[in-house]
Amino acid sequence: QVQLAESGGGLVQAGGSLTLSCAASGGRLSDYAMGWFRHAPGKEREFVAVIRWSGRTEYADSVKGRFTIPRDNAKNTVYLRMFSLKPDDTAAYYCAATTRFALYTAAEYEYWGQGTQVTVSS
What's the CA gap between 39 and 71, in Å, rounded? Predict the structure, then answer.
C-alpha cells in the first residue's frame, strides 16, 4: 500500500549532526504511525523514534534529547534529525509504517524502507 525510501545517511564525526529522510509513496503519511529503527552489526533491530497519527513523538532513552522526528505532510516525508552523534549511533537506519498500536516493536510495523547507513567516527 505504501512504499518507503530512506535517504540522507553518511559519514559524520562524533558530535556532529545528520538528517535522514523517509519519503512515502502510494499512501498518505497521515494514515500511519511512522517509526525509525536502527540495526547495528551483532545487535537486534532497535527502536529509535516514532511519530503517532496525532503528531505525538516518542524516543528511545538512548537518543532522547538528541534526535527529533519531524513530519512534512506537504512532501509526504518524515525525517530523523540527529545531533550530538556518538559512535554508538552507527547503524543502518530504517523507517517503517504501521496502522497498528504497538509502536515500539519492529514486528508490529507493516511497511519498511531499505535502510540508509549512518557511520559516526570517533
Answer: 22
Whether 102 has a pLDDT exceeding 80, the answer reads no
SS3 letters for 31-57?
HCEEEEEEECCCCCCEEEEEECCCCCE
Give the pLDDT confidence score for residue 6 in this predicted structure: 96
In the chain, count H helices and then E strands: 0, 12
Please calculate the CA angle 107-113-117 and round it to the nearest 5 degrees: 105
State mean pLDDT over 31-40: 95
**Interval 82-98: pLDDT, tens:** 999 999 999 999 999 99
CB under 8 Å to 41, separation ≥6 — which residues? none
Q: How far apart are CA 119 and CA 105, in angstroms?
A: 24
